[in-house]
Amino acid sequence: MDATQSPVPVAPRVVESSQAAERDQKLAQIGGNVGAIWRGWWTWGPGNGVWNLQIPWNVIGVNSTVVITASEIDGNGNRFVGAAPFQVSSIAPAAGVVTFKINIDWSSPLPMRTDVVVFN
């Protein structure tokens, strides 16, 4: 590869996740127009570039509000702010899954962790 060519982006892949909560878990009512909140995390193998990724989770519905953050992680899975920008956008919940766009603006693949909060 010469200096004018860009490396081929690598898609992130799930490596590990937190214990998933089930819809039938007995959780306290939150109040207002939110009946339940769930939080989970997923670590992903190294990736870079722009990708549409999916996280399957049965607590997500078409009317859920889903918040996703992404951070670079070190070899021990600890989040940190490095030089590479990580950007999450276009979050689209559906029945049992959320699709989102990730942009890891770096020339080489980097591992990441996504933290997900679901409001129902």
From TrEMBL:
Full protein name: Uncharacterized protein
Organism: Streptomyces laurentii
